[in-house]
Amino acid sequence: MVWIAAALIVLFIQPAYRRLKAKGYPARIAFKIIIFICTICLGIGIVEPAAVYLAVFFSLSFLLMSVIVRPREGAPGDAIFQITFACPACRESITFDFDREGFAELCPKCGEIVRVPKKTSDVDSASGRQ
After folding, report:
1. What is the pTM of this model?
2. What's the per-residue H, E or C state across the chain?
């Protein structure tokens, strides 16, 4: 029972963290607090099963809160999770999700194989973003 609850907690917290970060909030602090609360509830859940439901409830509330809260002014949005760079072959600007950094991908414009660079300030400044 505790393992299923732990899996549900991870499934709820990870998208909530990404959503809050994209909306411009310091999601790391909220993430640490909710993980701390859920860990305590899961630890108590070994003895008292009702605490497991409480941990799942807290993580689900965190996800719902991340959906409801409005973005801050000047929030980066989903661009924070993307890497934009110029294709070495066709010089067109292409964008990939940040989890593809270091992988070889096909350029959607010309079809050449390109290696997605690590996300650094050089890559962002080359694409014109601050």
Report:
1. 0.60
2. CHHHHHHHHHHHHHHHHHHHHHCCCCHHHHHHHHHHHHHHHHHHHCCCCHHHHHHHHHHHHHHHHHHHCCCCCCCCHHHHHEEEEECCCCCCEEEEEHHHCCCEEECCCCCCEEECCCCCHHHHHHCCCC
